[in-house]
Amino acid sequence: MCRGSAVLKGQLLRSLTSADMFTRMLKLRLLNAVAPAYFFMATAVTFILHFCFFIPTIFPNKDTSLRGSATLHTVVFLFLMFNALGNYIMTIKYPAESANETVVPVCSAHCSDKVDAHYLLNGRHFCKLCKKVILKRDHHCFFTGNCIGNKNMRYFIMFCIYTSCTCLYSLVLGVAFLTVEYSISFENPLTFLTLLPLSTGYFFTGTISGLQLFLVLMLYVWLGIGLVCAGFCCQQVLLVAWGQTWCQMQRGQLVDNRSPWRTNLKDVFGTRWILGLILPVQTVETCSEDTDAHKQE
Ligand SMILES: [Zn+2]
Questions:
Q1: Could you count the other beta carbons within 10 Å of the beta carbon of residue 232?
Q2: Domain that residue 281 falls in
Q3: How many domains does the chain have?
Q4: Among 22, 138, 146, 187, which has the minimal tally of Cβ within 10 Å of its Cβ?
Q5: In a domain, 254, yes or no
Q6: What 3-state DSSP class applies to 217?
Q7: How far apart are CA 150 and CA 268, in angstroms?
Q8: What are the tens digits of pLDDT across the range 29-42?
Q9: What does the alpha-carbon distance between residue 295 and residue 98 come to, in Å, rounded to a whole number?
Q10: Please, are residues 166 and 84 in contact by the beta-carbon 8 Å criterion?
């Protein structure tokens, strides 16, 4: 009787765990579909606001003395945008997956791994979202919809840097636009804190237009993304310099990496890393497949 209830309890627990895993996986899959859509929408909105509102209002066409500044701002914006989108494409174009391993590994009974990936040997992971074996996996990026590993880490870091710059630059232009168009003064540092609650209140009382509220919201979105990307990028650069990955850190398995930080950085950023800082190009000589895995074997 007692054994029967214990078996039942075990079965119930197992089905609960698998149901829980299923919902968590479903959430991750949903996020994997929503995040790229959000990224493209935010990019399109930033583009439209910049060219249809910011530049024409801050630098009016009739004022010829401002034409040079307008061109300069447009060039800077396009350069940042080009690098952000270029590195985004490169992150997807050069995936970190292993081309040799096409067999889906079966999870062992003692698998203590997370919902999205199984740890394999030699720093390889099987990503359940990508359904591929990833070499030296760092994490799964929901915005690019693929895994970040040693091969595409350099593009991912550059993507973070340029996304952060584009957002913070758009924030500055947005503030200039609100100052010119709606005479909002940002001299008081507290203005930024009170802007959103006040604007929301004014919108519902009909004092300001929907566009103005949307612009104010975008300022906070840009600030948020800009700061998050900058912080994330710093963390990634530090991990690369230490020769570690986010996966290892989360598992509490930081390896004892004795290579100097210069070697670790060069491993990821390549010999032509300076070119990679200003253009979304390949900076590492195409090496043979799975060298990292073989090195450790
Ligand atoms: Zn993945």
A1: 16
A2: 29-98+143-285
A3: 1
A4: 187
A5: yes
A6: helix
A7: 6
A8: 899 899 999 999 99
A9: 14
A10: yes
CA 57 to chain centre: 31
- DSSP symbols for 15-67: HHHHHHHHHHHHHHHHHHHHHHHHHHHHHHHHHHIIIIIIHHHHS-TT-GGGH
> And the tokens for 10?
């075990």
Q: What angle do CA 161, 164, 165 make, to 5 degrees?
A: 85
In a domain, 18, yes or no: no
ipTM of the complex: 0.95
Which residues neighbour ligand 1 (ion) by CB within 5 Å? 127, 129-130, 140, 147
* Cα–Cα distance, 79 to 244 (Å, whole number): 31
36: in domain: yes
Give the active site residues.
141
Nearest alpha-carbon partner for 46 in 55, 59, 57: 55
Distances (CA, A) of 35 to 20, 32, 104, 117: 22, 6, 26, 19
- For 45-91, how does the pLDDT look when each residue is reduced to its tens digit (9 = 90+)? 999 999 999 998 888 877 777 788 888 999 999 999 999 999 999 99
Residue whose token pair is 């710059």: 165
Please write the tens of the pLDDT for every residue from 94-140.
Answer: 888 777 766 666 555 455 556 667 777 666 788 888 888 888 888 88
How much distance in Å is there from the Cα of 271 to the middle of ligand 1? 27
Q: In which band, very low, low, confident or very high, does the pLDDT at 257 lie, cut at 50, 70 and 90?
A: low
Q: Is residue 295 part of a domain?
A: no
Confidence band of 167 (pLDDT split at 50, 70, 90): very high
Q: Report the separation in Å between the CA atom of 70 and the middle of ligand 1, taken as the mean of its atom positions.
A: 41
What is the whole-number distance in angstroms between the Cα of residue 238 and the centre of ligand 1? 22
CA of residue 130 to ligand 1 center, whole Å: 4
Distance 221 CA to ligand 1 centre (A): 26
pLDDT at 244 over 60: yes
